[in-house]
Amino acid sequence: MDNWRLIIGVLLFLLGGSALKGWAQDDRRVRAERIYEHLIEGRGDSIYAALNDEAQRQLSPAVFADTWRQLTGQFGALQSAGAWTQEAVQGVELCRRDLTFERYRLRLLVGFDADGRLNTIRVVPAPEPAGAPAVAFDRTLMEERDTVVVTDGYRLPATLTLPRLKEEGRRVPCVVLVHGSGPNDRDETIGPNKPFRDLAWLLAYRGIATLRYDKRTKVYGADCVPQGRRLDMDVETVDDALSAVRLAAGLPQVAADSVFVLGHSQGGMMAPRIAQRSPQVAGIIIVAGPARPFEDLLVEQSEYLASLTTPSEQTRARLDELKRQVANVKRLGTPAFSDTIALPLGLPKGYWEFLRAYRPVEVASALTCPLLVLQGERDYQVTMQDYGLWLMGLLTRPKAQLKSYPALNHLLQEGKGKSTPLEYNEARPVPSCVADDVAGFIRGRDVR
């Protein structure tokens, strides 16, 4: 199926234009259906006429005239076309329809400017159906209690998930779940997916408690920084994780010497610092944790997302500006640094100074507690390059284990091929094998 890129590439563009906020959903789908009919009937002129001005400057009617014949020649006759649905991608509302051919499933994405001009028509592989079954909450095997994680007066709503045990009074291990970047809730909700909730329930089935909480930036927004402090990773992530560890260790149901920290993405990057600052941490699990400078990941992610489309001039300009900002970040602490250049993501100088000084692999290699690194091989946000850096940095580190999963992406969703943001809009739960490995690690077993 490698040749599909040669055929689909002619339709792969996402051009400037506003989202369809003023339109009714039915109007969008009617227009999308019309474009679909033009496509299957080879009416390239009609599709071209529907394009906005920028798209017309870059494309020609011939691009679309023969596309359907090439698709069916490569993948066989169309077997069925699914219903139109909608999703937001990179700020644009797209109509989507899954097409099942004899030999492959594809997804057609169509989007329009606010004035109805076509700005997007993409054909991509349709996501694989979820392989893992949905994670169910079983009241006979687990219970959940509301609690609060408190740091410097900041109160973060939290959930304690406990396994129901036959032996009364037995204390269990507990895992504190630490979020990735952004204002995440306690479930780390992204689209229909809730990976932290899934992990909490999966671990409860395995006799392990979890504590998860809403992130401070979600609860307090711009007011998340204590007086006299500046925004950095300690304020955003580490301080609250330490409070959660203390809370978990003091619970009567939890074995105080078996409190572990599981950090995902940014939380994984900061997990070594959490353990460095707390003797109560019995071990850490780093899931999709960056090992490279954070600013380098920003550029790599942005370049990858731009490669999924034929980028507009605006997209290229934004990428160039990001690279200029990142180059300036790398000059922090030198005379070449410029205070007149905006910093990436609008984050303050102190935030980037903290990140530039922090070396997660070096901190992890100096820890004495057990350590587990887990990585999805399909992850485009934190890649196998990061995993390789963890591997090399921890080669001589006792009690360190590492494992990668060929089918998983950044959210621990199963699928095939390199992941894209579209997958995050598909409900795909965390597979049980991840919880098996985490539980085995907590109980001192080798992860294979």
Automatic annotation (TrEMBL):
Superkingdom per UniProt: Bacteria
InterPro entries listed in its UniProt record: AB_hydrolase_Est10 (IPR053145), AB_hydrolase_fold (IPR029058), DUF3887 (IPR024981), Hydrolase_4 (IPR022742)
Coiled-coil ranges from the UniProt annotation: none
Domain DUF3887: 32-118
A Pfam family the protein falls into: Hydrolase_4
Bilayer-spanning residue ranges: none
A molecular-function term among this protein's GO annotations: carboxylic ester hydrolase activity
Keyword list, A-Z: Hydrolase
SUPFAM superfamilies per the UniProt record, alphabetical: alpha/beta-Hydrolases
Domain Serine aminopeptidase S33: 196-412
Statement: the UniProt record of this protein carries the keyword Hydrolase: yes
Matching PANTHER family: ESTERASE ESTD (PTHR43265)
Protein name (Swiss-Prot/TrEMBL): Alpha/beta fold hydrolase
Organism in which the protein naturally occurs: Caecibacteroides pullorum
